[in-house]
Amino acid sequence: MPVVIARVHPEPGRLQEVLDVYAEAVPLVHQEPGCELFALHTDQTSIFVVERWTTDEDLAVHSAGPTFARTRAKVAGLMRAPADVWVLDALPFGDPLKGIIQ
């Protein structure tokens, strides 16, 4: 189960505009095959996207799909830097309900 953590860097003063774009996309992503988690968080400067996909193939389909492409196009002029993206494998130490993103 791949987990993705992405940090999105909106231009100063453009955070809400980027959040509005993601607000449109999130319900569509939630319907994609293999999407187990797609959640947004913010520190009021950046947006953090936390994702979990059933398989690497599901993640690849999402990344090549129309919702991802449309979202990237809509936010392109609103970013101060490219997103930082990490695709991770879980290390299930300790309590299995607390040791991994579920």
Our count of helices gives 3
What is the total tally of β strands? Answer: 4
Helix-strand category: alpha+beta
- Write the H/E string, N to C: EHEEHHE
Going across the biggest sheet, name each strand in turn.
Answer: 2-3-1-4
Shape type: globular
Mean pLDDT: 96
Termini Cα gap: 10 Å
Pfam families: ABM (PF03992)
Protein name: Quinol monooxygenase
Domain ABM: 2-88
Enzyme class: oxidoreductase
Provide an overview of this structure:
- This is Quinol monooxygenase.
- Keywords: Monooxygenase, Oxidoreductase.
- One of its GO terms (molecular function) is monooxygenase activity.
- It comes from Streptomyces noboritoensis.
- By secondary structure, the protein is an alpha+beta fold.
- Helices cover 33% and strands 32% of the residues.
- A four-stranded antiparallel β-sheet has the order 2-3-1-4.
- The radius of gyration is 14 Å and the shape is globular.
Key attributes of the depicted protein:
EC 1.-.-.-; 102 residues; monooxygenase activity; oxidoreductase; 3 helices
Short account of what is shown:
The protein has helices at 15-30, 56-63, 66-75; strands at residues 3-10, 35-42, 47-53, 79-88. By secondary structure, it is of the alpha+beta class.
Set down the secondary structure blueprint.
Blueprint: E1 3-10, H1 15-30, E2 35-42, E3 47-53, H2 56-63, H3 66-75, E4 79-88
Antiparallel strand pairs: 1-3, 1-4, 2-3
